[in-house]
Write a structure and sequence with these properties.
This protein is an alpha/beta fold and 356 residues long. Helix content is 35%, strand content 17%. It folds into 2 domains: 225 residues, inorganic pyrophosphatase (n-terminal core), CATH 3.90.1640.10; 121 residues, Roll (Diaminopimelate Epimerase, Chain A, domain 1), CATH 3.10.310. The relative contact order is 0.11. The structure holds guanosine-5'-monophosphate and manganese (II) ion.
């Protein structure tokens, strides 16, 4: 492993006020002495958490608990239904619904682990509270351009998923033997969902070696695929049909596809934001489409999701036009304009890019 990668390039952009910026993030190995005796540990992840976010948080939760620590895992908001089966999910606090308990846990914590995000604003309302916390903050993440607020950590954009990095962390601690079926299920969920079931280019030989190791430890991968992908409501399936017919636009000239979903569309089928999972990928299955966008109307903002194939860097696109970020082939951002305006702004950007 190349530890030079652990030294990060500071990036100061944030919506969260009063952030103390730190110029150097120390390597994760420097946390080992801190973990020598039992600690109170707060673990969190990004808002609207996905399989990698919750898989990483709960995988680390089980591991650190086994090591004798008192661990409180906290999600910045509610979880989508498709993750409610995960081992340990009953221990997760929801900051939006249980803010007093979460803040108490944060105040009492000795250490704070931040997983699968690298800007405090990605935790929404929890961001300000995290910014003001004075305990050591430890980052484990694979997004590009981390903010300069972490004391320790690993930031490796080449990694498939944060779950893979939690697996690396457990191994670095010399604790591979502690990986049980619960930890295996959590880490597999993270790596499988973030690699599009092992198809994206980030799926390295190390990822397959990790899955092989998890299988040897008793992983039941079929059960996990069924929990994640075969538990749709009838409404969700019909909604998918409606979206593909009524709400998807294809721009063959630009090799691009757009799906735009309003609050009214979601109400029509009684679906929730978790039911939109994976929808952005649909245009990418059309021949010659290598850029897909999904625009979703939310209560307080308009959310955009981007996916690409090949060398079109959608994290740069998200950062430049929609105050966002992410990875080269999967990113997201937000817009303060209305839903309808955001759609037309996006189309204008698309045509401007191609007119150049
Ligand atoms: P998704 O489209 O699944 O919400 O997000 C795709 C990727 O982009 C994820 O890795 C996510 O962390 C990142 N991402 C999504 N939305 C935002 C955003 O508003 N800001 C930043 N910086 N990254 C985002
Ligand atoms: Mn991830």
């Amino acid at each position: 492993m190349n530890y030079d990668l652990f030294i990060f390039a500071p990036c100061l952009k944030t919506d969260v006020k009063k952030v103390v910026t730190k110029l150097m993030m120390r390597p994760i190995q420097d946390t080992f002495p801190l973990l020598q005796n039992p600690k109170k540990i707060f673990i969190t992840t990004h808002h609207k958490p996905d399989g990698d976010a919750i898989g990483s948080v709960l995988g680390l939760y089980h591991y650190l608990t086994k090591k004798g620590h008192h661990v409180i895992p906290v999600s910045p908001g509610e979880l989508p239904d498709f993750l409610m089966w995960m081992p340990g999910v009953e221990h997760l606090l929801n900051y939006e619904a249980e803010s007093k308990l979460s803040i108490k846990a944060l105040k009492e914590a000795d250490l704070i682990f931040c997983l699968d995000f690298n800007e405090l604003s990605r935790t929404k309302h929890l961001g300000q509270v995290l910014a003001e916390a004075t305990q050591p903050k430890i980052l484990i993440d694979h997004h590009l351009k981390p903010q300069a607020v972490w004391d320790y950590g690993m930031s490796i954009p080449e990694k498939s998923s944060t779950a893979e990095m939690v697996y690396d962390f457990i191994n670095l601690c010399g604790d591979n033997a502690l990986i049980d079926t619960d930890i295996a299920a959590c880490l597999y969920t993270g790596v499988m969902t973030d690699t599009g079931s092992f198809r994206f280019p980030v799926t390295s030989a190390n990822v397959h070696a990790m899955v092989s190791d998890l299988k040897h430890k008793g992983l039941d991968h079929t059960k996990i695929h069924e929990e994640l992908y075969d538990t749709w409501s009838i409404n969700r399936m019909r909604f998918m049909g409606y979206v593909l017919i009524e709400k998807m636009e294809i721009f063959p000239k630009y090799n691009a596809g757009l799906i735009a979903i309003s609050k009214k569309d979601m109400k029509l089928f009684d679906v929730r934001s978790g039911d939109l999972e994976g929808l952005v990928n649909m245009p990418m299955s059309i021949n010659n489409i290598n850029f897909a966008t999904m625009i979703t109307e939310r209560n307080d903002e308009v959310k955009l999701s981007f996916r690409s194939k090949g060398d079109f860097d959608v994290s740069e696109f998200a950062r430049k036009y929609f105050n966002g970020g992410g990875h080269m082939n999967a990113s997201g951002g937000t817009s303060k304009a209305s839903f309808v305006e955001t759609i037309s702004n996006f189309k204008k950007i698309l045509s401007d890019i191609h007119a150049r």
